[in-house]
From TrEMBL:
Family designation: Belongs to the bacterial diacylglycerol kinase family.
PANTHER family cross-referenced by the UniProt entry: DIACYLGLYCEROL KINASE
Membrane topology reported for the UniProt record: Multi-pass membrane protein
UniProt-listed InterPro entries: DAGK, DAGK_sf, UDPK
Protein name: Diacylglycerol kinase
Residues reported to bind ATP: 24, 81, 99-100
Cofactor(s) recorded in Swiss-Prot or TrEMBL: Mg(2+)
Co-factor binding details: Mn(2+), Zn(2+), Cd(2+) and Co(2+) support activity to lesser extents.
Organism for this UniProt entry: Allomeiothermus silvanus (strain ATCC 700542 / DSM 9946 / NBRC 106475 / NCIMB 13440 / VI-R2) (Thermus silvanus)
PROSITE patterns: DAGK_PROKAR
GO cellular component, one term: plasma membrane
Transmembrane segment boundaries: 44-71, 102-126
Residue positions of the active site: 74 (proton acceptor)
Amino acid sequence: MGSFPPRPGADPNPIKGLRASFGYAFRGLRYAWTSQRNFRIESYIAALALALSLWLGVGLLEVLFLILIVLSLELLNTALEAVVDLTSPTYHPLAKAAKDTAAAAVLISSLLSGLIGLILLGPPLLDKLER
Ligand SMILES: Nc1ncnc2c1ncn2[C@@H]1O[C@H](COP(=O)(O)OP(=O)(O)OP(=O)(O)O)[C@@H](O)[C@H]1O
């Protein structure tokens, strides 16, 4: 009988431990997908950018890297929101600072990724459409 939450290193079977870790990570993804509208919007934009990059045959690695940054930061933002809601269910200026700062990280990475994506994919897309 395992304890929950599992203690680090408590599982003597490393394969089972690895499988459980993947399971928790996928549950985290599902939580973000179902509870965070922004995560869904960013995922749709990521899929579009990926499809465009494949269609145009340019910038696949760069697009994957930008997707990794934005979605990972959104996942961390979601995790931080959950912790803040757990530890500070009533108003606290530090809770506000934590949530606002994490949101700023997502905003900056999204804006810059969008800009880089436009610079990367915009010209070859126009080229292709003009032909
Ligand atoms: N416990 C709190 N104390 C102080 N301010 C808070 C607290 N909870 C939320 N806020 C403020 O309200 C804003 C919105 O918080 P909320 O929990 O709704 O997250 P969110 O930014 O709407 O996240 P998302 O829309 O991505 O789920 C925060 O950015 C923060 O400024």
